[in-house]
Amino acid sequence: IVGKKSGSRYTPGRRSADWRKVSVRRQMRAVVGGYVEGEGSRSSTFGSLLLGLWEDGHLRFIGAVGSGFDEPTLTAIRSSLEMIERGSSPFHMTIRYPGRLHWVEPGIVVNVEYKEWTSDGSLRAPVYKGVDLAEISDITWEAEGPEGLS
Known about the structure:
Elements: E1 2-4, E2 19-21, E3 26-37, E4 46-55, E5 58-65, H1 71-83, E6 85-86, E7 101-114, E8 116-117, E9 123-124, E10 127-132, H2 141-144
Antiparallel strand pairs: 1-2, 3-4, 3-7, 4-5, 6-7, 7-10, 8-9
């Protein structure tokens, strides 16, 4: 969305405080099914959380969120993840994602803000917004996923 100050003129190639571009972002809840091992400054925590939605009794992968975390949140979530680690993926499809993947029992729900859904059913530009206390079984493709995409 672009808004402008009344009476201001557009000048090609120049920025002006009179014209503002605002991105529309949406929010949703998702289930954490794993995480990517952190590197560099995040080597003691995690790089991103692997997210999913329940669909027909299976966890469907919808992408990963790696931004929006402060240091205390990274540490707290990593501690929670270590307690629920498991040896195999909870997702019903093979996940191909860069980095060393760790799987967890689906038990944590997070709120994320995102730009849009991609055509293959993944989140574009998700940002972590907090943990949600919703019932894990309520976080379904039907309730949280995009309309018209299956």
